Amino acid sequence: MKRIFSGVQPTGNIHIGNYLGALIQFVELQDEKDSECLYCVVDEHAITVPQDPKELRQHILDVASLYMAVGIDPKKSIVFVQSSVPAHAELGWILNCCANTGELFRMTQFKAKSQGKESVGAGLLTYPVLMAADILLYDVDVVPVGNDQKQHIELTRDLAIRVNSHYGKDTFVVPDGRFLKAGARIMALDDPTAKMSKSAKNEHSRISLLDPPSKIKKSIMRATTDSEGSVRFDIENKPGISNLMNIYSAFTGKTVQELEDEYAGRGYGDFKKDLVEVTVSALSPIQERYNAIRNSDGLIDVLREGGERADAIAKKTLKRVQDRFGLGL
Ligand code: AMP
Ligand code: TRP
Question: Which of 150, 198, 254, 316 is flagged as catalytic?
Answer without folding.
Answer: 198
